[in-house]
Design brief:
Elements: E1 2-4, H1 22-38, E2 42-45, E3 50-54, E4 62-65, H2 67-74, H3 81-97, H4 107-110, E5 112-117, H5 123-126, E6 136-144, E7 147-151, H6 161-174, E8 178-184, E9 187-193, H7 205-212, E10 222-228, E11 231-236, H8 242-259, E12 269-272, E13 275-278, H9 293-302
Antiparallel strand pairs: 1-7, 2-3, 3-4, 5-6, 6-7, 8-9, 9-11, 10-11, 10-12, 12-13
Length: about 300
Amino acid sequence: MTIHHPPERASGNNCALAPLTEPQAAHLVRLALDAAREHGLRATFDGTDALVLSPGPLNSALVAGLSNLARIVATEHPHRWPQLVSDHFDRLGEHLSHGPPVPPSDPVRDLVARLVPTTSLPPAWTAGTPEFLPGLLAVPATHDEGVVTLHLDPGDFGMTRAEALDAALANLRRLPDQVEYVDHDGATIAVIGGSSFAASRALVLDTVLRETLRVENPQYGVLVALPARSLLLVHVVTDLTILPALAVMLGLSLRAHTIQPGPLTPWIQYVTDSTWQPATTQPKDLEAIHLTPALQALTRTLS
């Protein structure tokens, strides 16, 4: 089984096409319906966050999510929206014209592990599958000219799930990172981006630390955020600058999770060795965020 462009929605976001306002969302839906018709597709809006297109591959219906498109246009001037939506449907139409994606010819070489919201995957597939973090699963994927395909049935190319994920993780380790640094009140945060697999590099954090950040076995661990698919934030803990680092990371992560395509999780994780745990509480009321007991204990150690 393969999945193209799985619908992704930010957890806890009540507006399906956030960060757009209701009038903006309605305008985007109209543009999407017009673009679909111009590409010869019969389209209806599902009333929430997607178009139902027909005919899809093999003359079946196809659900085309609009959540990520909403996040893309939200940062642009409204006069650019029609072109952005048209470009999106150009790519989608090209995709449909070729039918379902074929299995990778060399999966050991081509598969790359990708973090995906559990809710965007079929429940029958996710049942019993261990999550990397709450709400996130690692899935073998391939990418070609900006199009990512998730491969949910490695049996299509003669592999078990475990074999496919092992190959995908090995290839994820080989991807390069683009990193910049943010300094605030003595704290340094590594901002890794430039690829829709940037956040997925959290799956191979030891490689990121060793090869990109030049850090081996940090004594006090690291803070990590993966708010959206194209962004990974890392702070190596050395002293009480963990507190300003956490504040900056929370601000960056909460905003990115709200506005960037491919939302994953807004919350900061504290990682020691291979153990991941929340750095803060995760309340709906963002004014009520507090350090977890583990972080409180760490700050006492660093004092």
